[in-house]
Amino acid sequence: MTIFERLDPRKIPSSINPEDHLSVFRDRILQYILLGSCIFGLITLVTNVSTPISRGLWSIVIAYATAYLLMVLMTFLRNLSLPVRTGFFLLVLYMLSISSLLDAGLSGAGRIFLLTCVVFATILSNRRVGLIAGFAAVLTLIVFGWLMSSNIIPPPPVSVMTNSIHFVEWISETTVFLLLGIAATSSIMVLTTGLQNTIGTQVTLTNELTKERNSLELNVQARISEIQLRATQLEAASQIARDISLLSNLDDLLSNAVNLIRDRFGFYHAGIFLLDEQNEFAVLRSATGEAGRAMIEGNHRLRVGEVGIVGYVVSKGKPRIALDVGEDPVHFKNPALPLTRSEVALPLFAGNQIIGALDVQSEKSNAFTEDDIKILQTIADQLAVAVEKTRLVEKLQQSVDELESSYQVFTQKSWRSHLKSTHRNYSYRYQHSKIDMEAPDNPETIQVLERQESVITYDQANKDKKFIVVALPIKLRNQVLGVVDIRFEGTSISSDLIPMLETITNRLALALENGRLVEEIQNRAERERMIGDISAKIRSSSDVDKVLRIAAEELGRSLGIPEVLVQLRTTS
Q1: Among residues 177, 272, 340, 401, which one has the fewest Cβ atoms lying within 10 Å of its Cβ?
Q2: What's the whole-number mean pLDDT along residues 334-356?
Q3: Nearest Cα to 512, choosing from 484, 542, 485?
């Protein structure tokens, strides 16, 4: 620091920590006091040493001069620590008070110097130092009073005691008062200014903290709202995933999905498009609101790669976002949705194949965030899986239906062939502990064959006894093979009897099918055996004539044919 920077109270010396604001204030107060002492102390020194010089009190003159030099020295030595400089300053004040008490007793400025020493000790140090200085000042006055009253120290002469009649003494005391007043006033001004600055800084910090707190509260509320929105959106995605696992009807699934997207996300419109079989058009399969219902009834569709954002998405296989549809050249302005301001369409992929698109529209510009698009893409992927699963289930069901139909036809043909080959009409009746192999067709039997379902009625033929007739179809693969006709004596039967009879009848059908298959296998095995025998006998001879004779004979005998003709002929 230069000499002028050392003298400037606004400059902070290297011995003071700038972060220690109290020490900075105290150093600044001390420097102002020292500067004032250097300026006005010289005047005070000149006015106050004239009397001691005239009286020959050179010790007092030396004390005043030493005090002034110490003041000047402390003013320039700002690199000394604050406690050291403060100590020297308080020491100078105490020396001046002692000199004044020795010179004028109670008539001088000794008490003022002691009071000033106590005040500055409190301001420049702390309360503890101020209390010590106050105790020392009181003790000093008591000691000086006792010493002078006991004539141990000579009291001041009467001329000094009556110095009020001399104008020079008034000037001297006034300069002392002015010096001390300037020191006290400057210290109070510095303290006041520092206090004001501190209060202003505190108010500014408080206002900034209030604004920051309000901003944080707004940010927290916004974050909470955003988290709640994301939780609602994730719940919607989870609900769609649950629907995919529970619902098998594609239309119900898509309808629930678009309504959840609109309601939970708060969007204007949501729709799902699926490609037709030729992949030429994206056909609207499900949409929200009356506008969506009207578009579906009107078979709303968009040509792939040509019309609208949906057409673009199903053509390119990439998402497209129009944050302002008025500036998007691809956007199709749908008259059914006049309030649309922003739109996003996301492709539906089944493996590597595009099968459609999820279209979401909003009444607000810039309505879609990155988080919205990520969640919507997740929902789109789930919907694509659901659509593909439903299509596979439909194909599988169609294959099952075709296979079932084939089995039904096969079963019907097999039993017809079996009954025709056996030349029998299977019919058994159990009555009065006897089995009859011939039984007439009852009316209820004919009804079962016509209706293909069970018949429960009353037997009206016998008037002496009442019977309940239960006729059950013997069904195999939805084909009626026959009828079980049971008569119960009485007017009522148990409620669990019919299900038991139906179960028995179903098992009877399976047993019949197993029996037919066993007979068919046995017949086939018999035919194979017969073919083997005939072939072996035919191969037993190498003569053509014998081969032909054996063939005719074995075919007729094995097959029970009355006439077999085997002959060789050449074409003309």
Answers
A1: 401
A2: 87
A3: 484
